[in-house]
Amino acid sequence: MPRSILLGRQRTSVTTYEYDDKDRLVRSVTVHDAEWAEEDLAYAQAKHRNDIDKCPGGCGLPLSETTDPDNEGAYESPLPVRCHACTPMGHRQQEYRESPSGLLFRVMKRIKHAVSNPRSG
């Protein structure tokens, strides 16, 4: 879908009616504006260029930058952070590592139950 339509651009259509000498409709022609504006095409092309330049190795940064010899030593990797949702899901996946493929794993946040206050009420 074109970006401009996602952002709210309304397409326009113009209908022209042709009549004969007795005011009878003989033809109507409807012309629609282009679905993809020039700006939409430019954004799509830029996104495509960015996508194919993305490092498939895991960092996701642009290869045009990360493979430039001038950038050797310019990157660092900070200490990892733990995703407290991925941790239990990873443990669950390990329980089923010998199972046939096709299992779908989910993770959800536990619901905290409210504790009633014996002093209230």
Which ranges are low-confidence, i.e. pLDDT below 50, for 5 or more consecutive residues?
none
> What pattern of helices and strands is seen along the backbone?
HEEHHH
Overall mean pLDDT? 94
- Overall 3D shape: extended
What structural class is derived from the secondary structure elements? alpha+beta
Determine the strand fraction and express it as a percent band: 5-15%
Whole-number radius of gyration? 29 Å
Instruction: List the strand order in the largest sheet.
Output: 1-2
Share of residues in helices: 25-40%
Spatial gap, N to C terminus: 57 Å
Q: Tell me the number of strands.
A: 2
Described by strand count, sense and barrel closure, the largest sheet is: 2 strands, antiparallel
Q: How many H/I helices?
A: 4
Describe this structure in words.
Helix content is 28%, strand content 12%. With 121 residues, it is of the alpha+beta class. It has a two-stranded antiparallel sheet with strand order 1-2. A hairpin with a 5-residue loop joins strand 1 (13-19) and strand 2 (25-32). The radius of gyration is 29 Å and the shape is extended.
